[in-house]
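Hi P.,

Sorry for the delay on this. The queue was packed all week, but I finally got your sequence through. Input first:
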Amino acid sequence: MKARGFVRIIIILALLAVVIGLDQVSKIMVRHNVMYYQYTHYFNDRFTLTRVENTGAFLSVGNTLAGPVRFIVLNLLPLLAVIAGLIFMLTRQLNRTTLASIILIVGGGFGNIYDRIRYGSVTDFMHINFGFFQTGIFNVADVTILAGMLMLLFYAFFKRTDEEEIEESPAEEPLV
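Then the structure:
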């Protein structure tokens, strides 16, 4: 393996560790300092800090599943997706935006899967309420997954291919 490839992998894994670490540290702080369903309001009740344990996936989807179906849908499939994302970003030459997006998605996914496997639920603790816009209760991993998805979507939507740039750029005149 070339030194450059090794350094690239180390940087990717370090960034992934930062994303996972931020998520896990925030959850540990909430588990130790916030009681279940204790509500602390900030910014004129626009942001609420609370603590709930989500036994399902995003917005508690799947929390009523039981047995092997629950294990497959909430643990196995997400774990396989995270592993596939990790392998994808370590084995492909990706542009920085795509790589950063996948790091955020994989890191957040791993943080939530780790909680679900270790604790049987995911600790959620943030809520935003702007009246016309209100969220469910979420955590840092959810934010990183959403940020990664939005980055990937915006990049895919707004990127210009090399052919488009060449066609639209004015022809350069020779310097002589």
